[in-house]
Amino acid sequence: DADVTQTPRNRITKTGKRIMLECSQTKGHDRMYWYRQDPGLGLRLIYYSFDVKDINKGEISDGYSVSRQAQAKFSLSLESAIPNQTALYFCATSGYSDRDPDTQYFGPGTRLTVL
Amino acid sequence: AQSVTQLGSHVSVSEGALVLLRCNYSSSVPPYLFWYVQYPNQGLQLLLKYTSAATLVKGINGFEAEFKKSETSFHLTKPSAHMSDAAEYFCAVTSGGSNYKLTFGKGTLLTVNP
Known about the structure:
The complex is a heterodimer of chains A (115) and B (114). Chain A is 0% helix and 57% strand. Chain A is an all-beta fold. In chain A, β7 (64-70) and β8 form a beta hairpin. By secondary structure, chain B is mostly beta strands. In chain B, strands 2, 4, 5, 9, 10 and 11 form a six-stranded mixed β-sheet that branches. In chain B, strands 1-3-8-7-6 form a five-stranded antiparallel β-sheet, with no helix packed on it. In chain B, a hairpin with a 4-residue loop joins β7 (64-68) and β8 (73-78). Classes of the chains: A mainly beta (115), B mainly beta (114). The interface between A and B is medium-sized, with 23 and 22 residues.
């Protein structure tokens, strides 16, 4: 089984709808991240969390919110989806106490289309 | 502040030819550098990383990269391209330690022609 899983893998929705993307990990990592990938722009950080009680904004957090329900679960919500939020979304994890704390491990991604 | 520039959004090589993907970074502190690969319809997979040990870093699938502080570069190479190397490649930088922030380049799409 994959260490970092994301659901759903694909989602098509309409403008104004509320959407939640979910991420789960079995790596035992304390740090979790949400990124957005757009063609030609690379990956940009939306939110990150160092532990269940610690949530921080990344460089493009407007229009998004997150919830860290447990050490292993980190959800990203679009409160009112708009077309320019159409993108590929990735969850990633890293472990502060790992032998390799700087390496981030990525999920398979969620392709979101907002019509 | 830290940043990454990947020169060439698209690189095309013939099978068996040298692969060279360029990455230059900017960092106010000694950097940790990474190359990730993204195969079609998949997430990012770590190829290799530099974390202040040996400047020539070997990764998976025959790739390697050399950290050159004087040139602020971390170019990715592979002596002989294989069709299975076709993917998008991302260079990323962080300042290491307790710093969470991984800054990515915009990616280079590698095409391998038969």
